[in-house]
């Protein structure tokens, strides 16, 4: 009980006096889509407005469904992120597919100081390739594909003969809202294209990151206590 109170006190200071909302837990892109504009919370950060679609493909049979992509919240030193993974991102021959994933990071009690994408590589065979490109709208929501403010972009890729597995951008000043549009492009190009997935991280002040993790643990503890 004392430990819970300690975590609760830390959470109170970190997020401005309370806990509310659905906790982000391991699920699928489809389950995150279903939460809509209310989204879920990783501590003081709300992940919301998740949408996923295939925008181009060689045939319907190779399209990866949102229910086949897992989503796992992760915490690091000064970072909070989501891991997107699927064994179905695997093409060969003449197949290709392009997907669009959009969602927002909304930290009403904190700030976001940067964005990072990390590719979980599975070595496409040249001339096959895979790219994951995230455009971020700083401080505003995208209106369609247009950001009313300034944007930042990060891109990770593997072209079979060369790769960029980590890409990051920093924000100065920090932003209180980050809306993202991520394009995932796989093209076997006569060989193969495959990835295990990717991670999208946002950078937050390090003490806040620990508070966010405590928030998740506290929420789970409270939920289990009431079950």
Description of the molecule:
This protein is of the alpha+beta class. The protein has one domain (22-206). The protein is 18% helix and 48% strand. It has 3 helices and 14 strands. Strands 1, 4, 5, 6, 8, 12 and 14 form a 7-stranded antiparallel sheet that branches. Strands 2-3-7-13-9-10-11 form a 7-stranded antiparallel sheet. A hairpin with a 4-residue loop joins strand 10 (151-158) and strand 11 (163-164). Helix 1 (2-15) packs across helix 3 (206-226). It starts with a helix and ends with a helix. The relative contact order is 0.23. Mean pLDDT is 86; it is low at 1-19.
The count of β-strands is 14
List SSEs in N-to-C order. Answer: HEHEEEEEEEEEEEEEH
Strand content: over 45%
Give the number of domains: 1
General shape: globular
Low-confidence stretches: 1-19
| Helix-and-strand structural type | alpha+beta
Mean pLDDT: 86
Can you summarize this structure?
It contains three helices and 14 strands.
Task: Describe the secondary-structure layout.
Layout: H1 2-15, E1 27-28, H2 29-34, E2 40-42, E3 45-57, E4 70-76, E5 79-85, E6 90-92, E7 96-106, E8 112-121, E9 129-138, E10 151-158, E11 163-164, E12 166-175, E13 178-187, E14 192-203, H3 206-226
Antiparallel strand pairs: 1-4, 2-3, 3-7, 4-5, 5-14, 6-14, 7-13, 8-12, 8-14, 9-10, 9-13, 10-11
Helix pairs in contact: 1-3
